[in-house]
Structure to design on (458 residues):
């Protein structure tokens, strides 16, 4: 039983495997058929793609050819445009040159018209007015005849203008071009018609322009009659120039003479002004010196008057007056010796010595006025410097003396015996303040005299 069962199982397994093999073979055949179909479709697609690529290559080659043609045409047009622009620039430069020359000629013409006499200009103006009056009726007749001609031709020209307008619009319409640059047959006939009609259009336009430009040329010819000039030979201009040169030379000579006279007047004016300023300054200095001398004399007169009053009231005694006179005589003698010297001393009185000193002082003042102000200022500065140095030296000497006195006192105090005070310190009773009599006038006068003596005689 076991063997039968195992045999049954083996047979069943073999049958199942056979069925599976058959099923797989069927699937393989189906897949092979499907692959064959796909290969066929791929081959068809490849052939179609190759045809597409070939057509694309053909179209690209044709497009390249068209592009090359268009670029060639474009380059030719650009070259033509450059040539035309160069020609235009040359023409413009020539026009500008001609305009410059025309401007120069106009300037020369205006200059010649300005040089021409007034009588001739008046005659030319009268002639020009007469010509204009004569031309006005002829121009009116021409205008009326042109208006009638245009009115007659208006009805006939309307149809012509309509046809020309249609032809121009047909020329402006662009022709349709195919992918490969081929135009359709329906549009090829229109350019031929336009080309055939272009000469007629241009001829009519040229005829109209020529008819419109004729009057302008006639106007320029008629204006050419106004270009008459007074000067027909160069000798006339040379004569005018010689006359103008003579006039200019005479004017230049007159101006030079006037300038010379003006220079002379300016020099004399400056000299007189300098001289007057110098005299004014000298007079001002004289006035200042006189005022100073007057003030000094007034002060001395006031002092002498005061002294005379004092002597008159008997405040001083005779002995004191004699002593004062002797001291005054000695002082005047010292001043006389220092100012004049000991050579002319011959028992002169005080008044005589004072007169001599005064004369000497006047001479010195006169000489001082002649000395430049700069030197006087320098001398005053030097004297002031010496006086300050002297005062400084005196102050230093006085300080040294005071310092020595203080040192001596300090030494004396140090060497003295020390005394001890015993008992109560005595306090003195306060005293009333002493009334001091002011004698400032005499001291101030003495100080002034000392300063003057130090300033003038040191």
């Amino acid at each position: 039983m076991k063997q039968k069962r195992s045999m049954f199982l083996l047979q069943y397994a073999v049958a199942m495997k056979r069925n599976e093999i058959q099923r797989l073979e069927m699937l393989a055949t189906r897949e092979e058929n499907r692959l064959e179909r796909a290969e066929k479709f791929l081959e068809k697609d490849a052939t179609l793609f190759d045809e597409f690529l070939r057509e694309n290559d053909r179209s690209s080659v044709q497009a390249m050819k068209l592009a090359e043609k268009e670029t060639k045409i474009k380059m030719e047009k650009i070259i033509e445009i450059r040539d035309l622009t160069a020609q235009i620039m040359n023409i413009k430069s020539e026009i500008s040159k001609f305009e410059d020359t025309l401007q120069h000629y106009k300037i020369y013409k205006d200059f010649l018209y300005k040089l021409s006499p007034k009588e001739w200009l008046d005659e030319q103006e009268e002639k020009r007015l007469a010509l204009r009056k004569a031309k006005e009726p002829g121009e009116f007749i021409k205008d009326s005849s042109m208006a009638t001609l245009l009115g007659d031709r208006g009805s006939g020209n309307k149809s012509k203008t309509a046809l020309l307008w249609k032809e121009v619009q047909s020329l402006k319409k662009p022709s349709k071009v195919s992918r490969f640059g081929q135009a359709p047959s329906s549009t090829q006939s229109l350019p031929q018609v336009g080309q055939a009609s272009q000469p007629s259009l241009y001829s009519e336009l040229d005829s109209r322009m020529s008819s419109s430009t004729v009057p302008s040329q006639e106007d320029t010819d008629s204006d050419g009659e106004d270009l008459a000039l007074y000067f027909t030979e160069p000798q006339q201009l040379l004569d005018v120039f010689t006359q103008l040169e003579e006039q200019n030379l005479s004017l230049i000579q007159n101006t030079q003479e006037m300038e010379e006279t003006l220079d002379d007047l300016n020099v004399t004016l400056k000299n007189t002004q300098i001289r007057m300023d110098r005299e004014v300054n000298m007079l001002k200095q004289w006035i200042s010196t006189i005022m100073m001398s007057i003030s000094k004399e007034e002060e001395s007169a006031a002092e002498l008057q005061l002294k005379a009053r004092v002597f008159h009231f008997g405040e001083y005694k005779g002995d004191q007056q004699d002593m004062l006179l002797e001291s005054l005589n000695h002082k005047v003698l010292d001043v006389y010796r220092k100012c004049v010297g000991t050579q002319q001393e011959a028992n002169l009185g005080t008044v005589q010595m004072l007169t001599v000193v005064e004369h000497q002082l006047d001479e010195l003042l006169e000489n001082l006025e002649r000395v430049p102000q700069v030197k006087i200022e320098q001398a005053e500065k030097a004297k002031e410097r010496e006086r300050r140095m002297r005062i400084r030296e005196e102050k230093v000497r006085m300080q040294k003396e005071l310092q020595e006195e203080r040192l001596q006192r300090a030494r004396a105090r140090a060497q003295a015996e020390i005394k001890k005070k015993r008992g109560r310190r005595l306090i003195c009773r306060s005293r009333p303040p002493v009334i001091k009599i002011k004698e400032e006038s005499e001291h101030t006068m003495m100080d002034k005299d000392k300063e003057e003596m130090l300033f003038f005689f040191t």
User: Anything to note?
Assistant: Residues 165 and 352 are 140 Å apart (CA to CA). The helical segments are 2-115, 118-172, 189-223, 234-312, 318-339, 350-370, 373-415, 440-456. Residues 149-158, 171-225 have pLDDT under 50 and may be disordered. The chain is about 85% helix and 0% strand.
